[in-house]
UniProtKB/TrEMBL annotation:
Gene3D superfamilies, per the entry: 2.60.120.200
Coiled coil region boundaries: none
InterPro entries in the record: ConA-like_dom_sf (IPR013320), MAM_dom (IPR000998), MAM_domain-containing (IPR051560)
SUPFAM superfamilies attached to this UniProt entry: Concanavalin A-like lectins/glucanases
Full protein name: MALR1 protein
GO (cellular component) term, any one: membrane
Domain MAM, first and last residues per copy: 5-160
UniProt-listed Pfam families: MAM
Amino acid sequence: GSSWNNCDFEANLCKVLPEFNLQPGWIRRNGQSGMGPPYSDHSGNESAYFLSLSSEMQSSSAALRTRVFLPTDEHHLCQMRFHYWVSQMSGTLIVGLQKDSEDIFTNIWQVSGELRNQWNVNTITINSTEKFEVIFLGMMETQRQGESVAIDDITFSEGC
């Protein structure tokens, strides 16, 4: 509901995804951009915006980092809900947790190819005893026409 911090990408990025955290490789666009699928956002709106991997990516992966969140506890359940599109074969989307004291992020969820070309939704409950960032890592093994990795409507619960 309205209590969730929501990133729908309509105006720009939101408070939990600062502008400078959009690393090269991710692009904010809509389905009418002429960049291939998806041709609409998760609600079917062709002019509504989402993030997708750019076809001009220099490397095969691109990270998207949230701001730093405070530790979670039993009173502050942190849930993150997001819509995702991973087209067939070569696309992968990983969600990771970057904790304050660790150099590398911990993979907490991942999906690869073999999905039909459609938007899906997922909710992840995050537990961390220390400050953390959430990382979305999109990867494309090959740049085939008509393949894409995209994210839309990321929402964080009040406990985050």
